[in-house]
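so my prof wants the structure for this chain in the tokens format not the other one, which i didnt know existed until like an hour ago. anyway here's the sequence
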Amino acid sequence: MKVWKDILSGDEMVTDTFPHEIPEEYNEACLLVKAKYTTKKSEFVAIASDDVDEGGEDGETVVDVIDAMRLQEVQLTKKDFMGIIKGIQFYVGESYNMEASMAGFLGTLAKKLEAEGKGDRVAGFKKGATGMVKLIVGKFDEF
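here's what i got, hopefully its the right format
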């Protein structure tokens, strides 16, 4: 089984047991994983004869990847997302400077790749990651 980890934190993100693809247009900078909503079975167990499951519910509805990998869902605004990309948001007047923000995030990742002996992947990764972030920002309300 292949496990993909976050390069900065080392946290396990997903395994190859979930349907996935590595889109060529993003130069292996991302992994697209197909997730689905599933309903977990109720964990109620009647111990004594007078125990009654009053809820009568089948269980909780969860996203399979998030539940299986024990990921924590984070609610972000578009501004929050861009703040994470940079750590510091760059604004020129009232407008956001995406290229300046991406430079900081990508710089951190590039240093990590080079430290791990993968310096040959840096240029392609920067190009692919920039494209992926632009896609996410452009369709942010769909994520």
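also thought this was worth mentioning. The beta strands are 3-5, 12-15, 20-21, 32-33, 37-39, 61-63, 91-92, 95-96.
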